[in-house]
Design a protein that fits this description.
It catalyses: Hydrolysis of proteins in presence of ATP. By secondary structure, this protein is of the alpha/beta class. It is 42% helix and 18% strand. The protein is built from 25 helices and 24 strands. Strands 18-19-17-16-20-23-24 form a seven-stranded mixed β-sheet. It has a five-stranded mixed beta barrel with strand order 1-3-4-5-6.
């Protein structure tokens, strides 16, 4: 708003900026000042003529505003009284008139400005009288609706007031923004100001009435709830007198469940404590449902319910043999476990807990999980299985604390409760695939559950009481062991599951898989037969695996195609022959014999161990004119690259024995490659094969195609012991090798190799590379 200042009414006065709100003429109020500049202005005015100007700030956050941060219309006021407290100055002021700010004359200790009084525009008419009366009426409605106004202000407004005084005084107490109040201050015509104040007061009345309606509804609801609670308490008291209360029956039912659960003494005390707490709470209390759920968990757990171990040992062994072919070591270990339990029961030994946790380790598809079910059947116990693959939250094992909404026990306690026995066969599948993140490490939580010395008092966060897991027979499964933390691996007895031989696969397919797929695909057991030659063909030419899953899928494919013919009312085949397999499975996927048809220079057959069992690999060496560089390719790991360098160093240091020139390597570049370059390869066991491939290429002596080899090599030519002998030998047998060279120290490991494989393969045990040379290379 821009005004033309009259020199007659100009004044030089102290200025006190107002952070929030607007001071109007015709009002009396108490203002509190805390900023040093404002305090100084008020004190200076009080010591002189007590006159001071109040101008509102455009932005209340500005600490020391100048002329640009102040509205140009303010109020001239008189300070009636001052009161100083510890940190603030309180002033009782009275608004006198409107003033416009001309300029700031001083801005040091406090603001001093040139101001001019601005007269109001007042007209006398019947309309003004009506507007004034209407505003008084609206003000009374606002008071009735609940607007908070002090008594002195109400008496002053309802008394005799001019229209200008009425408009300013009501404008001051309106609950509106500073900008809207400033607009009222700058409205000079009293008629217009009355209209604007009435409009703003009407808006405030609507808000007050809405708030009162909401408060009334809330109060009614609260009163109704209080009444219901009171009536419920009266009903409860009456029913208790008559002995007919539902809640009393529920408490009695929980009391009976606690007695029947046969809990340990400490757990029973905890349950009774929670039950007493439940009795004291109002049924509408939010914690009632939490306590009931908790008591249900405590009473439903099988604290003393166990499955008796009354299965004869011979019968248990027979059950294992019925369900699984081979796996003699595993079956032997389970029968030993059962025998120990029998002896403990006969001698009435108090400590009947199992002292070991079994871990079945092996490639996929070899029967680890299914053997767990067979063990439970052989022991006459219940079987429960949980998969740990992908679990990253510790609470999955130990549960959540009861303070969380929707808290539950961990998966171990949940499974024990669901199975209803405290001594089941409990399988923790895929323990090697447990992860860890910001929610904790589940493998660390498993340490207690899988430790025979600790799990008799397993602590679940939800239960808050110990549960005895020592009677549970825990079995874990894993494909690899290196991903299992050492502390957890140390608590388990590792039982390796090697890959199946061809004879074992044939027996499994004939006795189990073929019959299973006939039933699964709706074919009568005696309607379709498969010849032995066809089964051998499927195993040799359509699968290359350690387990039998791919074999089962191929048999399922045959059954589905036959089922389709029957469904289409075509004549089904009576049997599946070797010659007819291509119609069902397509062309052969794998070659039965080695890829190399004859002995070649610079190519040697090595043996490898993978997650899927054993396999063969070829080491190729190429020589090129060059400067003595060595290239190693085939996605080799660091250890395997070092084996290649060690093999080359051996050849260079034994150049005379091998019939080579002393500086043969200076004019040659040597390239060592292991095919199937997309597959990562690592480990020291290829050292012997790499050395033989190098010597073959340099001496031009062909490597025998029917000879496979494995072993770590040293710079002095020693052949060191390696692992995975059984899997590697089975892979050699599967590939059709006739001779296998092994480190001498691995001779003991042939005990685990099936007799059929040992019968078909000739084994050479070497301690030096010189012994390997005589067998691996042709003369």
């Amino acid at each position: 708003m821009k005004l033309t200042l009259s020199s007659e009414k100009q004044k030089i006065l102290p200025i006190a900026p107002i952070r929030k709100g607007v001071i109007f003429p015709h009002i009396e109020t108490v203002l509190t000042f805390g900023r040093p500049q404002s305090v100084a202005a008020v004190e200076a005015a009080f010591q002189n003529d007590r006159l001071i100007c109040f101008f509102s700030q455009k932005n209340f956050q500005v600490q020391n505003p100048g002329q640009g941060e102040l509205y140009q219309m303010g109020t001239l006021g008189r300070i009636e009284r001052l009161l100083r407290t510890e940190n603030d100055l309180h002033a009782w002021v009275k608004g006198l008139s409107r003033v416009a700010l001309g300029s700031i004359q001083a801005n040091q200790a406090f603001l001093v400005g040139q101001v001019v009084e601005v007269p109001e525009i007042l007209e006398s008419s019947d309309e003004m009288t009506a507007l004034t009366a209407n505003l008084v009426k609206r003000f009374q409605q606002a008071i009735s609706a609940g607007k908070a106004v002090d008594v002195m202000t109400v008496m002053r407004l309802l008394g005799e007031s001019t229209p200008a005084e009425l408009a300013d005084q009501i404008a001051y107490i309106l609950e509106v923004k500073t900008a809207e109040k400033q607009a009222l201050l700058e409205t000079l015509p009293v008629k217009d100001r009355l209209l604007q104040v009435t409009r703003l007061l009407d808006r405030e009345i609507k808000v007050l009435e809405l708030e009162r309606t909401i408060a009334s509804k809330t109060q009614l609801k609260f009163d109704r709830n209080m009444r219901e609670a009171m009536l419920r308490e009266r009903k409860k008291a009456i029913e208790e007198e008559l002995g007919e209360g539902d809640e009393g029956n529920e408490i009695k039912e929980l009391q009976e469940k606690i007695k029947k659960a046969q809990m340990p003494k400490s757990v029973a005390q905890k349950a009774q404590k929670e039950l007493k707490r439940l009795q004291t709470l109002n049924p509408a209390h939010p914690e009632v449902s939490y306590i009931r759920t908790y008591l249900d968990w405590l009473t439903d757990l099988p604290w003393s319910k166990a499955t008796p171990n009354n299965i004869p040992i011979k019968k248990a062994a027979r059950v294992l043999n019925e369900d699984h072919y081979g796996l003699d070591k595993v079956k032997e270990r389970v029968v030993e476990y059962l025998a120990v339990m029998k002896l403990k029961e006969k001698s009435r030994t108090k400590d009947v807990r199992d002292s070991t946790i079994l871990c079945f380790s092996g490639p996929p598809g070899v029967g680890k999980t299914s053997l767990g079910k067979s063990i439970a059947r052989a022991l006459g116990r219940k079987f429960v299985r949980i998969s740990l693959g992908g679990i990253r939250d510790e609470a999955e094992i130990r549960g959540h604390r009861r303070t969380y909404v929707g808290a539950m026990p961990g998966r171990i306690i949940q499974s024990i409760k669901n199975i209803g026995s405290n001594n089941p066969v409990f399988m923790l599948d895929e323990i090697d695939k447990v992860g860890a993140d910001f929610r904790g490490d589940p493998s660390a939580a498993l340490l207690e559950a899988l430790d025979p010395e600790q799990n008799n008092e397993f602590s679940d966060h939800y239960l808050e009481v110990p549960f005895d897991l020592s009677k549970v027979m825990f079995i874990t499964t894993a494909n690899v062991l290196y991903t299992i933390p050492p502390a957890l691996r140390d608590r388990m007895e590792i039982i390796p599951f090697p890959g199946y031989t061809e004879d074992e696969k044939f027996a499994i397919a004939k006795k189990f898989l073929w019959q299973k797929q006939l039933v699964a695909n709706g074919l009568p057991k005696n309607q379709l037969k498969i010849s032995d030659a066809a089964l051998h063909e499927v195993i040799q030419r359509y699968t290359r695996e350690a387990g039998v899953r791919e074999l089962e899928r191929n048999l399922a494919t045959i059954c589905r195609k036959v089922a389709r013919k029957i469904a289409e009312k075509e004549k089904p085949p009576v049997g599946i022959s070797r010659q007819g397999l291509a119609k069902y499975l397509g062309p052969r996927k794998f070659s039965r014999t080695l890829a190399e048809k004859g002995d070649e220079v610079g190519i040697v057959t090595g043996l490898a161990y993978t997650q899927a069992g054993g396999d063969i690999l070829f080491i190729e060496v190429a020589l090129m004119p060059g400067k003595g560089q060595l290239f190693l390719t085939g996605k080799l790991g660091e250890v395997m690259k070092e084996s290649g360098k060690a093999a080359l160093s051996y050849v260079r240091s034994h150049w005379q024995q091998l019939g080579l020139k002393q500086d043969f390597y200076k004019s040659l570049d040597i390239h060592i490659h292991v095919p199937e370059g997309a597959i990562p390869k690592d480990g020291p066991s290829a050292g012997v094969a790499i050395a033989m491939a190098l010597i073959s290429a340099l001496t031009k002596r062909p490597a025998r195609k029917q000879v496979g080899m494995t072993g770590e090599v040293t710079l002095r030519g020693r052949v060191l012991e390696i692992g995975g002998v059984k899997e590697k030998v089975i892979a050699a047998h599967r590939a059709g090798l006739k001779t296998v060279i092994l480190p001498k120290d691995n001779k003991k490991d042939l005990v685990d190799v099936p007799a059929k494989v040992k019968k078909d393969i000739k084994f050479i045990f070497a301690s030096q590379l010189d012994e390997v040379l005589k067998v691996a290379l042709a003369k």
